[in-house]
Write a structure and sequence with these properties.
Layout lengths: L5 E3 L7 H9 L4 E2 L26 H6 L9 E5 L7 H10 L4 E6 L2 H16 L7 H7 L8 H10 L5 E5 L7 H11 L18 E2 L2 H8 L1 H10 L2 H13 L1 E2 L4 E2 L1 H22 L13 E2 L10 E4 L6
Parallel strand pairs: 1-3, 1-4, 2-3, 4-5
Antiparallel strand pairs: 5-10, 6-7, 8-9
Helix pairs in contact: 3-6, 4-11, 6-11, 8-10
């Protein structure tokens, strides 16, 4: 029986697809091709907000059946971050696991999520970003309470926070820092390409076809992995992120929803997040690439 010894627990639209790819390329890391199995968030009851690709222990263990001595064994499920069931289930099954949490400036994350939900599932159709945000509609995720739940259940030196917003930093150095956190060779350099970018579809019919969940599941389980990556590249090339621009007014109104949570979060983790609240000019919020660089920061004072 093999279970992971590290888990990337979220959040969505904060670089988790890139982290899945970068970590998976390391020769001393085993991660299943499947992203977001969601097993630990499944609580034996229907939850329409979540996607559970794996709902039983046998199927979950099967994801790691091909482990061949790799030191770091992990998975990525962004549904875990705000799931109380996931916190308890991970603690019960793998109490010594290392956890990676990716955080993004919340107004920009909500804007990116709004567009993803709209283009993939038609959610919030006919509503502006601010209208959808005011209604909730899955966009108003705060960080403090969920982070505190993990910090209350796990040894603090086992949690690493990834800040998505520092896109001018050296990606290679940042990812290599994560390798060090996992206790594996930190000199390895993965291919640092763009993974799962946001944007507005140039061709709607092509996007609907490529985003079909049944087709994607069939491709993942049937086709060679190189073909799956080629399909993802095609889907990404069909997205125009230049059309996803949040105005200064939209950012200011959205940022106000998250202000208190940002201040509580920075106090909790000891990382200055004040730049998330600074007024900015109109800006693009559609990119989920890590290629320009990320800051990977240990929670202050929690490094081993």
């Amino acid at each position: 029986m093999t279970l992971p010894n590290f888990v990337v627990v979220g959040v969505a639209k904060a670089g988790t697809s890139s982290l899945h790819s970068y970590l998976r390329q390391h020769p001393d890391v085993f991660m299943p091709q499947m992203k977001d199995p969601g097993f630990f968030a499944f609580n034996n009851e229907a939850d329409p907000r979540r996607r559970h690709k794996v709902t039983n222990r046998e199927a979950y263990e099967a994801l790691f059946a091909e482990v061949r001595g790799e030191r770091a064994i992990g998975e990525v499920s962004d549904t875990y971050f705000d799931s109380k069931a996931a916190v308890a289930n991970i603690k019960a099954a793998i109490p010594g696991a290392r956890l990676i949490v990716s955080l993004r400036e919340p107004a920009s994350r909500a804007f990116s999520l709004y567009h993803m939900m709209l283009r993939n599932r038609g959610v919030n159709k006919g509503l502006s970003f601010i209208e959808a945000l005011e209604r909730g509609e899955g966009l108003r995720l705060g960080y403090h309470d969920s982070l505190k739940a993990y910090l209350d259940h796990f040894d603090r030196h086992r949690i690493r926070v990834v800040l998505f917003d520092d896109l001018t930093r050296d990606t290679r150095a940042s990812v290599q820092s994560l390798f060090g956190f996992l206790g594996i060779d930190s000199d390895f350099t993965p291919e640092l390409k763009v993974f799962n970018p946001g944007g507005v579809p140039k061709s709607k019919w092509l996007h609907r076809l490529m985003a079909n969940p049944r087709l994607r599941a069939w491709a993942r389980d049937t086709l060679p992995e190189s073909w799956v990556h080629a399909a993802k590249d095609l889907r990404s090339s069909n997205l125009d992120k230049s059309k996803m621009r949040m105005t200064e007014e939209e950012w200011a109104r959205a940022s106000a929803y998250f202000r208190d949570d940002v201040l509580k979060t920075q106090d909790l983790i000891g990382i200055d997040l004040s730049h998330w609240l600074e007024p900015r000019d109109a800006r693009s919020a559609g990119s989920d690439t890590m290629a320009a660089g990320h800051k990977i920061a240990a929670i202050q004072g929690l490094d081993p």
